[in-house]
Amino acid sequence: MKEVFLYLYITFLGAIIGSFLNVVAYRVPREESIVTPPSHCPHCQKRLQMLDLIPVLSWLLLKGRCRYCQNPIFWQYPLVEAVTAGVWVLVYWRYGWSGETLVGLLFVSFLIPLTVIDWHEWILPDRLTYPLIITTLLMRIWIREEPFWWSLAGAALGAGILWFWLGSAPISLARKGWGSATSS
């Protein structure tokens, strides 16, 4: 029974973090603060109250609409909250209560907003990728399952594939490579 409550707690905590990750995914590409101003409706700018911020549940109870202006609330918000909750449960299920769990939760908490930002903006902001690189290196130091040279070989292989792919993209697409901010 204690285990059930622990999983429910992790699910709820993951959903709360997912709500914050929505803020990160929305504000980081716009170079806005992730702390201030408090959460608000993007249409009417009305500050959201505590009842409006309950992950997934608020969206369902409000039928996907702002309490104040009745404009639709993007379905991405409850989806990110639910996915984050589910991934947090999976990380805990895989690693139990350990240092690996904390590192894994931090790792996926960077990947989720990066995925959302990439989906919408086609960018991966340095403000998130650099801390993710540091987190990955710390995870590699902390979790030593394979010899270190395997990590180096994997990094070299990944960099080589990326280098080849980016180098061949202009040829295969018969136009500018992907990710060019100035391409039209």
UniProtKB/TrEMBL annotation:
Q: Which residues form the Prepilin peptidase A24 N-terminal domain?
A: 13-95
Quote the Gene3D superfamilies the UniProt record gives: 1.20.120.1220
Identify the domain of life. Answer: Bacteria
* Occurrences of domain Prepilin type IV endopeptidase peptidase (ranges): 105-178
**Membrane-related topology note:** Multi-pass membrane protein
Task: Tell me where it mainly resides.
Answer: membrane
Checking InterPro entries in the record gives: Prepilin_IV_endopep_pep (IPR000045), Prepilin_pept_A24_N (IPR010627), Prepilin_peptidase/N-MTase (IPR050882)
Keyword Translocase assigned to the entry: answer is no
GO annotations under biological process?
Answer: signal peptide processing
Cell membrane as a keyword?
yes
Subcellular location as annotated: Cell membrane
User: Can you tell me where the transmembrane regions are?
Assistant: 6-26, 73-95, 101-120, 149-166
The record's GO CC annotations read: plasma membrane
| An example molecular function term from Gene Ontology annotations | aspartic-type endopeptidase activity
Ordered alphabetically, the record's keywords are: Cell membrane, Membrane, Transmembrane, Transmembrane helix
Q: Report the sequence similarity comment from the record.
A: Belongs to the peptidase A24 family.
Name it. Answer: Prepilin peptidase
Q: Please give the organism.
A: Collibacillus ludicampi
